[in-house]
């Protein structure tokens, strides 16, 4: 047993994104569609038309689909009059009131379509009958008076989103309504953990691109555990990341600061250089682990569990470590190999390395970008993965929470 | 005389945005289209098909359209083999080389489609014939060797952008390739000036939402001239904006700092409070202008030229001025009236006031957002104007350059 | 039993901040000082001189103090030659090497002070004796050769930080070395929790200024617990915060999104308006709690535990709620009362309200600012509390971690 | 003829920064000082005392100095009673009213010091005599009533800024009032131009560190002129900067976009790769200039006028160009040579390269940092130049305006 209803879309519905949005709404909200008629506008100035039956398992599923289609410009194939319900009190809307978009809107009263005046988002529509003449306008909550005839439900309403101009000129871009849902942090971290677990369960590889802020902000132990337990298969980072991580193992500090007590012990600032100097003396990271110099942390777990790591050099580096690939072309090639093997890439607070890895990824690799700077997240998401999620948060709280989700 | 060619699109081409992109490409690049066949996938799992003739005035117009369609996943209806040209030297590509996208790609060699290995963006495709066996892979510039058979032109190439997953679950969103063209600052300011001039020429109204940073960063005189000359019809701002502007007229300072010499004269910090106190004593801004207290600046020009202004109060305000509407509901109503009258809204460095104005705008009003914070620009553009342009720049340099464009 | 040593400072040591830094170093690192001689430069161009005995409980405490004083420009009163130790290997520094600042530096060899060439931060100093002539220069780690005579320890080194120019002109400000210690996130949250617990233990009051992002990012339940358990005595927020919080209680959503499942239930976008409408109908927040409409959340706990709250209106508001003070002047007065009563203010993701509260605070109130935008944190810290801590992080992870620290 | 007055400072005036501030105020505002008495607190818990005569050429200079000293905690050596003036009207302050700081404050009435209640910044002090009892409190502008006895002038007021705690513990840092003067953009650019002209007039060298955004945002021609005219002696940049710059010369585009018309010509996206490929074919940048391939732009002017340039490679690079130093250690050495030669460094929109250059600079080199991201500017200014200026603005407008100031 299914339920269904028929909607129509008309106009420049392909290039204004309405058809795409209609299909997306139906699929996202758990419905099916059956295109009963589709006439494409065969040239630039001809309009298209689509009549689509929307099918769902039950009314509870169908209703929100129709509502969203409606807000996007679809109209019911068999229009009825709008339902008008008196406001129960001043400043109070009747149950089920229709909440406006910011698009031009008509409302059907006594069989006629009436334009709604003063269109504004998130308002109620109030219909005024003055003898034979009927008018409609938006009202904000504090404009509602008891008894006002407020439109409730979706019936009898027609929304007309702006269409893409036929000629684009001047500075203005055509913006399509993007619902950029912010999501609660803890809940999104849970979802990312699930995606990583799923990738691993399917035999996939997880590559983690990590900046030094991961260590400095206290995320080192969490990432080390993810490497040890096999949730992270490979690390792509720079010289600084590895030095910070190993400084933490050798001295308990990061750039000279004790990451537990936050005190700066004597000569703390030298720890950074000493770490590099000692690892050079040992011959490299693997040798430093072998001779017991490094006993914990991300680099330790990489060596101990035989995980692949690439450290790419940069002109900001101290040292660098013997393991750091100082030639940019050679480093790109190593990164390219890592990128090709990855099924999911976790980019943590490292714009330079994330861009370098991102440049080598096909559009089919899943990407997670975490950075405290929204511009960095936007830039990385724009690089072209088709399956991507960005999170503007603090890696110092993200990594421990992610590790907890995956490991506990 | 026109030229034309026929391309095909196949797959989930509506909800993955490919049809929209195809139409947009043709129109943006100055072509026309004629849909010769269109079969819509009537349900979620059925694919659609489109055969479209692309028409242009000449080859020079047609070629880039076909190229872009191609990069977006369209294929030529009558495929031919790819053109292979030997690389003239190590690290040097032949003229007209095909530059890859990051999408899965096939290349046609000897009548067969061969998958391209190691897909990566902005690379060349090199074809290797080893006896009967043919393979193709991407190579970066520094991987090219003299004599490599590099694909040139667009013929014989098939790009397959990822399609929107039929089931959306988990944290990953479906990203569509957005070419977010950064534009040279001076050139974009020129375009915005033209849009303002055009709006005025058509009898439209320009509303400027302005934050105190406009005055503090030195943009006051420019904005005052735009008000005087009628390029700005109305000002929507807060108490702070008006006080800064009038402090500049009364004392030559902004928050106590001389905006020309940048020196802090004696008691400079009191100028802010004095300005408010004096305007209160006079009875309001208009009275202060009338009695010669205020002799220049944005507020002066508003009074002198009878331009509408709304000053909305906030809990951060000093004073406030008698003209400031301290009640938030009353202020919203005044802003609503301004917003409804506007044909183009210029939002300058004021998140709070821009959001308040934006909330009242229909989706058809043109919007220009200028702020030094990219997150502010993004947030304002997301609010739903269909015709919008954002610019991440310094109002202290933007306003003088805009005024110069419009007035000189 | 204590240990001590004597250092000297000379030059424009007061207005260049060196004296202040010297006192701060001694106190921060657990020492005492005894000023043996102090001659102040009595006019602008005269230099000052200070001879100070530094006293500590043991060598382990004294040493880092002397080291830091040294880096800041103090010299040992009885200078000895620098210790020179051969580098054990290429790229390897000897134990205890002296790591340079970026200030002009001399090194004492055979009783003479020799200027160090090519001053650069974080390098080693290598001394070269060529017959009678002695020279010294900085070397980075990868420039060190086995056998190089590297300065170790602090003895025999003289650092000369730039002094404040006697005449300030032009755009350049005099910058003093600010050690801006980034701190690991989890560890800093622990310290903030302790400060709150301490304030409460001393009978103080904690005021929390909260933006809607607290609720939207999932921090609502944590903050509600802090209110219930008495760690937060008062809430200063806006209309939006309260509506989001109560929408969560009434519908399980925030701006229409289910904060657990992140799904958008039917008509989700209306929940925001409904919440306001229902609370208006009930008569206000307290009435809505009393009639069982609101059963959990921050506002519920405020009513149930009789905590003070102020909701200040703004021109962005929907509604607003009957409890929201729409007049800006009246709202400021209510905020002023809250601010005067507070001993510690926790500012969470709300620039507007935090600035309004901050404007009313004396400089003696402790302030904690948490925001994901570093510019917001900087702006709030700059407003003049003498005891302040800022944290650039995600409130959606901060609040749960803070609640866990305090309550578990 | 000079005028003078005597002030006293008492307490922990060195380590709380008050002495430094006092000296700075006198010098910044054009005065002289004569220390008449100075007793240093010889140990941590002992207070210091300073009696200082402030001397200036005239009253107009002396007054603001005394005012600022006063706000910072200095008191007049011979205190008099505060001047009380009735408020002329509701909400109006008398001329010369004293505007409060947020520090604890006393006011002297009838020979007695009375504490001011409800201390808050930027308020007036109102004194209330009720019979024998005298009280004083702050009032905001809208709290003033006609006839209120308002303190005017600086006499009879004592401000007590918080002192640095003797024991520092917990998360709170001791903040000192930083007057972070924002300055009008155009006026600050003028000052930077003067500093560059001055450096050149003294025979100094100007090094410009430039990111690709300089070209992309339209700043290329301006920078090229500065190189040609000798205002910039050397360029430190990356591969991308040089490619963008030469692409502009060869094709008129930057990353494929026409920087004048903002149109994307056919195959625009390939221009970037072609530029690299052609320069490789020619043998390098100098060869490309010699054979007439490159005829304008920054790199052209460097070659044509024999200016030094260093292009340091990175893992993000396409190509790279033959001139790009791909090895990070070798590149650092080249950058180090540039840095040591520079007298003024102009850092334009390039975090990576600016940090690399900054790492090699002594603290005495003048530094100008320009970036649209405030966090980048802060990070660069924090690296330790004693003479530095930062500007948060758009290089696309900054460079043309700077060039105009210097060249026209």
UniProtKB/TrEMBL annotation, chains A, B, C, D:
Keyword NAD: yes
Residues covered by the Arginine dihydrolase ArgZ/ArgE-like C-terminal first subdomain domain: 104-189
Segments forming domain Arginine dihydrolase ArgZ/ArgE-like C-terminal second subdomain: 191-402
Pfam families for the chain: ArgZ-like_C_1st, ArgZ-like_C_2nd, Saccharop_dh_N
Top-rank taxon, per record: Archaea
The UniProt record lists the keyword Signal: no
EC number(s) recorded for this UniProt protein: 4.3.1.12
GO molecular function, one term: ornithine cyclodeaminase activity
The family this protein is said to belong to: Belongs to the AgrE/ArgZ ornithine cyclodeaminase family.
Function as written in the Swiss-Prot or TrEMBL entry: Catalyzes the conversion of ornithine to proline, with the release of ammonia.
Name of the protein this chain belongs to: Ornithine cyclodeaminase
């Amino acid at each position: 047993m299914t339920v269904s209803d028929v909607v129509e879309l008309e106009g420049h519905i392909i290039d204004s994104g309405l058809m795409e949005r209609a299909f997306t709404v139906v699929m996202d909200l758990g419905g099916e569609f059956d295109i009963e008629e589709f006439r494409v506008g065969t040239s630039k100035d001809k309009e298209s038309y689509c009549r689509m039956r929307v099918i769902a398992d039950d009314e509870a599923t169908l209703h929100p689909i129709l509502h969203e289609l409606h807000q996007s410009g679809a109209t019911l194939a068999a229009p009825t009059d709008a339902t008008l319900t008196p406001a129960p009190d001043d400043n109070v809307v009747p149950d089920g009131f229709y909440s406006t978009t910011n698009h031009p809107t008509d409302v059907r009263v006594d069989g006629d379509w009436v334009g709604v005046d003063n269109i504004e988002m998130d308002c109620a529509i109030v219909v005024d009958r003055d003898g034979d003449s009927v008018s409609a306008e938006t009202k904000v909550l504090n404009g509602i008076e008891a008894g006002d005839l407020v439109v409730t439900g979706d019936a009898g309403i027609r929304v007309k989103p702006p269409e893409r101009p036929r000629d684009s000129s001047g500075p203005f871009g055509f913006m399509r309504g993007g619902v950029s849902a912010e999501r609660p942090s803890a809940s999104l971290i849970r979802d990312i953990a699930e995606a990583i677990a799923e990738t691993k369960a399917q035999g996939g590889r997880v590559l983690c691109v990590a900046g030094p802020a991961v260590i400095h902000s206290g995320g080192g132990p969490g990432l080390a555990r993810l490497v040890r337990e096999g949730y992270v298969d490979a690390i792509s980072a720079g010289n600084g990341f590895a030095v910070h991580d190993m400084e933490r193992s050798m001295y308990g500090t990061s750039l000279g600061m004790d990451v537990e007590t936050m005190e700066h012990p004597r000569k703390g600032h030298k720890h950074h250089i000493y770490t590099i100097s000692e690892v050079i003396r040992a011959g490299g990271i693997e040798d430093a682990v072998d001779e017991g110099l490094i006993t914990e942390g991300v680099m330790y777990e990489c060596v101990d569990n035989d995980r692949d790591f690439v450290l790419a050099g940069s002109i900001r580096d101290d040292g660098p470590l013997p393991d750091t690939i100082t030639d940019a072309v050679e480093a790109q090639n190593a990164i390219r190999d890592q990128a090709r093997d990855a099924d999911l890439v976790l980019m943590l607070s490292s714009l330079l390395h994330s861009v370098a890895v991102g440049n080598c990824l096909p559009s089919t690799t899943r990407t997670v970008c975490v950075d405290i700077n929204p511009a960095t997240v936007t830039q990385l998401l724009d690089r072209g993965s088709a399956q991507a999620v960005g999170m503007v948060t603090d890696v110092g709280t993200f990594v421990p929470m992610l590790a907890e989700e995956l490991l506990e």
